[in-house]
């Protein structure tokens, strides 16, 4: 939503359809990095998509999940669900505030530009 508001504000309405798929593509890429053990601990905690995935797996398994799903003999850092929840709440607050700020700045767009969507 925030990206779409930013595009409307910049009068780049023709790009809305393409840009609206960027979060979905980022979600696939970031979660696959975590699943295959390539992602760092910082990336897992900083990305809201990875936080959602980590919390879903934590809720399903009922225990903390390792950063890398390797062999059982491997020692791996466990992902703390409390940190994931805190980072997810921080992302929600930041994106909500950014959305409110951008909504106040949005101006009327001519209907001719919107027809091409």
UniProtKB/TrEMBL annotation:
The chain crosses the membrane at residues 15-36, 81-102. The keyword Membrane applies. It comes from the Bacteria. The keyword Membrane applies. Keywords: Membrane, Transmembrane, Transmembrane helix. This is Uncharacterized protein. It comes from candidate division WOR-3 bacterium. The lineage of its organism: Bacteria, Bacteria division WOR-3.
